[in-house]
From TrEMBL:
Residue stretches in coiled coil: none
InterPro entries per record: Acetyltransferase_Eis, Acyl_CoA_acyltransferase, GNAT_dom
Pfam families the UniProt entry points to: Acetyltransf_9
SUPFAM superfamilies listed in its UniProt record: Acyl-CoA N-acyltransferases (Nat)
Domain N-acetyltransferase: 3-149
Name the record gives this protein: N-acetyltransferase domain-containing protein
A molecular function (GO) term: aminoglycoside N-acetyltransferase activity
GO terms under biological process: aminoglycoside antibiotic catabolic process
Amino acid sequence: MDIEIRYIEKDEILESHIAEERANGRHGDKAALPLITEALIDGRGVAAFDDGIIVGFGIAYPLKMNVGIERFPTTLLDKVAVLPTHRRRGILNGMMEFHMRDFYERGETLSGLGASESIIYGRYGYGIGSMQVDFSIDRRHTAFITDVPTKGKHRFIDSGDALDSLPEVAERANAKRSGFIKGTKSLWKLYLSDLESQRGDASELFHVVYEEDGQVDGYVSYRTRK
C-alpha cells in the first residue's frame, strides 16, 4: 500500500472534514463547513492519501503558549484520525513523523496536542499538560453562594457580541497561567458557532457576561435541557 502524506489543498477541505468525522463515528455537518474552512486556513491540514482518497487527517494550528512569563511559538495538533478501514498500517506514525519534522523545520518551539485518547501519543513524546473534568450535580444538593461582594451587573449577550467579548476575557484571566494557548478568531468562531449537531438534546447556547465599570470581567455560557 503506497500512502502519500502531504498538506491538503483548499478544495480538499470538505473531504478532509468528512474523513475526520467518519473516523470518529460521525457524519460530517455540512452547515459547519464554512467555519471549518476558515479554521483550516488558519492552520495546516495534513492528510494521508490512499490512491488519491483521504484516509487519515490532522490539523496543526500555529499558536503561542504561556510558559512562565513568556509566550513560545507552539503548534497545536488536533483532529488526528485514521479511517477504520486503514488502521494498523502505520498511517498515524507517518502523519506524526510528518508533523514533527515540519514544526521543527519551521522553528516552532513546542507542539501541543488535543487528544481524546491520550494514551496513544506518549510514544511521540507527548504527556498530559492539562485535563478537562465534567461534573453532573443533582440540583437538590447545590446552592448559590450569596455572600460574594460585587458591584457590577450581569446581562445576556448574543453570539455575535460573545465573539467580541469572550476571547479577550479568557486571555486576560489566563495571562499568567502556564499552558494557556491563545486561540485564533476562527477557532473561537467555531467554538461559539452553536451548530445544531453540537447540541445533543440541549438548547442553543446562552451567554451571560459580568461587567464592572464598563468592562467585561467574566462570563458564563450554558445550555438548558427539558
